[in-house]
Amino acid sequence: MAASRGESGQATNLLGMNREELRAFVATFGERPYRGNQIYRWLYTRGAVSFDVMTDIARAARDRLSHAAVIYGVVPVTSTLSPADGTSKFLFALSDGLHIESVCIPPSTLFDADEERSGDHQPRERLTLCVSTQVGCPLACTFCATGTMGFLRNLTVAEIIDQVLQVRRMTGRRITNIVFMGMGEPLLNYERVMQAADIMTDGLDIAARRITVSTAGWVDGILRMAADRRRNKLAISLHSAVEETRVRLMPVTRRFPLVRLQDAVKRYYAATRLRVTYECIFFDGINDRPEDVRRLIRFARSVPCKINVIPYHSITFTHPEGLAASLRPSSRTDEIVDQLHEANLTVMVRSSAGEDIAAACGQLAVDEPRRRHEGAIAHNRPSFPHETTTHETPPLWASGRGEGNASEVTL
Fold it and tell me: Rounded to whole angstroms, how far apart are CA atoms 331 and 314?
């Protein structure tokens, strides 16, 4: 039976499909469901990029697939290595000419030290990939470079999952942990992000507890995670428990005030019994006063949680204005950490990874889309209430090398 293409006449992209979707697809040209299972394993477990290598599938079936379907996600453009800590930043091109970035954090950087102590992974075995979910971001957090791009579009499941497949292929190493902390707000691309996360668990053998979804506080998405009883970790970019301060730092607070965020967190914990992580950067004279710390402690005590204290990473390369241009790291951070410990809260102080190559938290941004899409920032930012208007060269650390100047490799 001849395979038929979609209504548009275009071949169907199989990358990003889950098992059920692949079974349904092969059924359209007379194949039995197990054929979908075979394709699933080839795509995700083995990382196949063509049907020719799927040797346990009959030649006739592979021929039909090659006429009806494609395997396509993202295209590697460059890889930049940090000589300071071995972090690698990857630039990927999308089918419409836009670009995104991902960051691979090597074993030498203790990104999640509490897991290291629990024995979840040996440091030398651990490899974390920071994955993007949108081109740009509409939430415009003051301290984040991605927000300066504006919002261009959501990524597809294929584009999300292929970041992992491509980095695994280029490094020759298994990715053990995923953090949805790259470009974009994951909960504004909920269905695709969660399908990608499920494929990562089922197809790439990355346990759900090793996949973290980080949000700026998009309450609707947190409530949906609660309703769906997601087993992935939830991290909330909090930074302040004082309403007016958080509004200045994170305009999303106008849409979802702290009282609604706290209520959503309580519902999430009640549904999942999973500890929440709060992410905090302390800025000089902004959120580091004694009252700020007292309010943070009170907010954090509402459910079992962990507080990640993150260094501030400069985004001066984006030429920020206003408050963003004046942000400086607080000199009181160590004192604040001591106060949080004294309040019997679990606190982790993060080290910087990739700051020298603009790959650290808050530094991901691509200039090219802004040039191609003039006006995207003003046009695509959401309005909040009361707001005015393929050569595959692995990073050096993959083979045990990592010294010298930062290197950029064209792939």
Answer: 15
Tell me which H or E stretch contains 337: helix 333-342
Rounded CA-CA distance 398/136 in Å is 29
State the span(s) of the chain assigned CATH 3.20.20.70: 75-380
Q: Give the HSE-up count for residue 312: Cα atoms under 13 Å, Cβ half-sphere.
A: 23
CATH class label, 12-70:
mainly alpha
Q: Report the distance separating Cα 256 and Cα 80, nearest Å.
A: 37
* Radius of gyration of the chain measured on its C-alpha atoms: 22
* Per-residue confidence in pLDDT tens, the chain, 411 aa: 233 444 456 899 999 999 999 999 999 988 899 999 999 999 999 999 999 999 999 999 999 999 999 999 999 999 999 888 889 999 999 999 999 999 999 876 544 444 444 445 455 578 999 999 999 999 999 999 999 999 999 999 999 999 999 999 999 999 999 999 999 999 999 999 999 999 999 999 999 999 999 999 999 999 999 999 999 999 999 999 999 999 999 999 999 999 999 999 999 999 999 999 999 999 999 999 999 999 999 999 999 999 999 999 999 898 989 999 999 999 999 999 999 999 999 999 988 888 877 777 887 888 754 434 444 433 343 333 333 323 333 333 333 333 334 444 444
Topology of domain 75-380 in CATH is TIM Barrel (3.20.20)
Residues 6+ apart with CB under 8 A from 330: 282, 283, 284, 285, 286, 287, 288, 336
User: Tokens 């993060």 sit at which residue?
Assistant: 350
The pair of three-digit structure tokens given for residue 332, joined into one six-digit string = 């009181």
pTM of the model: 0.86
What is d(CA 132, CA 49) in angstroms, rounded to the nearest whole number? 21
Handedness of CA 358, 360, 365, 366 (dihedral sign): positive
Q: Angle between the 258-272 and 219-228 helix axes, to the nearest 10 degrees?
A: 10
Catalytic sites, residue numbers: 101, 361
Strands 233-237, 151-154: pairing is: unpaired
Count of residues in the chain: 411
* β-bridge mates for residue 214, sequence order: 235
- The helix (H) or strand (E) run that includes residue 154 is strand 151-154
Q: CATH 1.10.150.530 in the chain, residues?
A: 12-70
Beta bridge partners of 78: 91, 410
- Determine how many CB atoms are found less than 10 A away from the CB of residue 24: 12
Tokens 């309703």 appear where?
Answer: 227
